[in-house]
Write a structure and sequence with these properties.
Belongs to the L-aspartate dehydrogenase family. It comes from Petrolisthes cinctipes (Flat porcelain crab). GO terms for molecular function: aspartate dehydrogenase [NAD(P)+] activity; NADP binding. The radius of gyration is 19 Å and the shape is globular. By secondary structure, the chain is α/β, with parallel strands linked by helices. Helices cover about 30% and strands about 25% of the residues. Helix 2 links the parallel strand 3 and strand 4. Strands 2-1-3-4-5-11 form a six-stranded parallel sheet, sandwiched between helices. It has a five-stranded mixed sheet with strand order 7-8-6-9-10. Helix 4 packs parallel to helix 7.
Length: about 270
Amino acid sequence: MGKRRVGIVGYGHLGQYLTQAVLDHPDLDLAFVWNRTTTQLDGHIEDRYICRDLEECGRFSPDIIVEVAHPVISEKYGSMLLGVADYLVGSPTALARQETEDALRAAATPHGLYVPSGALWGAQDILKMADRGTLKGLKVTMIKHPSCFKLEGELKAKNESVKENRVTLYEGPVRGLCPLAPNNVNTMAAAAMAAHNLGFDVVQGCLISDPMLRDWHVVEVNVTGPVVAGRTFNVTTTRNNPADPGAVTGSATYASFLSSLVRSGGMGPGVHLC
């Protein structure tokens, strides 16, 4: 097999990291890079790689297209992109909108829709339990410094008022949280996709703003399984990801996303966790 051709949609911090990583990787080949502001690419990306019209990306012959821009990309272009190649949705919070999830699931043929597990430790185990129907509950808690959140609406105002003590910004179904924190809770969205027997309305998300947490992003995952002889199966993991104040994405997430990209593609139609 030849090198897999990768198209990258978005040229922020993660997009820049992936672009260089693809260029350096022995099994990957850069097909194109698209960014909403094309001038940001000029002088950084060779002209032969620059896609100036996303609807014309097919002429670059990508094998997989990676979105690392904004959830709106999947809403507006996801079905079209799945018609061109496999599609790795880097902002799975877009899938909290039921119409978007339904549209992309329907469009995931003959190509596949890939959801990166990101900071979701134990994602494959959660998926296996969901496949068997033994997953009964799932809660993901994210704790960050206030400056690390990029929020909308009432959560933005609530977070701006956090000064000394930690504050729970949200606790409830992941579906309601995704539109308010589209850049911060992709891990929770991935959890809702892995836990497909529960989905966005049953999987719980908790967002905590802690002004004392200056060096880490903390992700806690609590999995509940079946009750056997009055005893409930339960697994809890805690992931401490090094991150500076103001960093929306923890440092370990970049390498994790690259690993998801390397593992993705070629699995056929449908939805795949990677």
